[in-house]
Design brief:
This protein has about 290 residues and is an all-beta fold. It has one helix spanning about 265; strands spanning about 10-15, 20-25, 30-35, 40-45, 50-60, 60-65, 75, 80-85, 90-95, 105-110, 115-120, 130-135, 140-145, 150-155, 160-165, 170-175, 185-190, 200-205, 210-215, 220-225, 230-235, 240-245, 250-255, 275. Strand 11 and strand 12 form a beta hairpin.
């Protein structure tokens, strides 16, 4: 099916000039959207009621994070470190992963049971991995060959998990076992076309369609259940890095971008947080429950 272009106008709502803006997350209790500048380890948040944003936390390098069910925030960092931020204090959950000493985490997601899938960057010729962090703090490898592990999302019926490998420019789909957390029957579901950049962060809307941010592609792609592009939204910034739905009815899409090489190269608004009305609803993400 040919793409049917959408015509919503992305609105820049927080001009933070993030080098690598990533990981937007809607906090359903606070009614605010969070996002991170990965290399600077800066966590931001935006309040749509006031239109104001603020720097919430700075800590090393933050490749991803989850909201804990008890109000804490899990930070997934360099060297495979995992730390809990709660009540103004940092507690180490995992000091390091020996295989990840030269790397870092990159994009994570909590599952409905409170586990966390957490991907890593490649180190030299070794591809990144996708780990599964259990509620007791133990780590397991979900799959070894995650490439440059990136966006992860669940189908609405929780039978499938989607995973982006930016290195290979593809998205895979796996069967998800909620009781064990195991991912099986992993297959290639979508390949990014030449000229569309790299598949980066993602989310899945209420209809089960995947929204994939395209790094160096200046757009979001909406992919149907078979992995075919059905809609596209363009952005002024080249490096569109991730997306999440939020708001009372999950009708507001919040989109992060990156400003790696300056705006003359990366385009207007690079590094800012955008909001866009896509005409579809998203769905809530899950809280992690590590140690709870």
């Amino acid at each position: 099916m040919a793409a049917v272009p959408l015509r919503p106008e992305p609105e820049m709502i927080a001009d933070t000039l993030c080098k690598t803006g990533e990981g937007p997350m809607w906090h359903p209790v606070e009614k605010r959207v969070y996002w991170v500048d990965i290399p600077n380890g800066t966590l931001y948040r935006y309040d749509p009621d006031t239109g104001e944003h603020e720097q919430f936390l700075q800590s090393g390098v933050i490749g991803g994070y989850t909201f804990q069910a008890d109000g804490g925030i899990l930070l997934f960092q360099e060297r495979g470190a995992i730390r809990l931020y709660k009540n103004g204090e940092l507690t180490t959950i995992v000091e390091e992963i020996p295989e990840e000493r030269e790397g870092r985490f990159n994009d994570v997601i909590a599952d409905p049971e409170g586990r966390v899938y957490c991907g890593t960057m490649p180190i030299g010729d070794r591809p990144g991995k996708l780990y599964r962090l259990e509620r007791d703090g133990s780590l397991h490898v979900a799959f070894e060959d995650a490439g440059l592990s990136n966006g992860i999302g669940f189908s609405p019926d929780l039978s499938l998990v989607y995973h982006s490998d930016s290195d290979k420019r593809l998205i895979t789909r796996s069967r998800y076992n909620r009781s064990t957390g195991e991912l099986t029957e992993r297959t290639v579901w979508h390949r990014t076309k030449d000229g569309d950049g790299l598949p980066d962060g993602m989310t899945v809307d209420a209809d089960g369609y995947v929204w994939s941010a395209q790094w160096d592609g200046s757009c979001l792609l909406r992919l149907d259940l078979d992995g075919n592009e059905v809609d596209r939204v363009t952005f002024p910034a080249n490096k569109v890095s991730s997306i999440i739905f939020g708001g009372e009815d999950y009708l507001d899409a919040y989109v992060t971008t990156a400003n790696v090489n300056g705006r003359e190269t990366e385009g207007p608004g690079a590094g800012a947080l955008f909001r866009v009305q896509l005409g579809v609803a998203g769905k809530p993400e899950f809280f992690s429950r590590i140690g709870l």
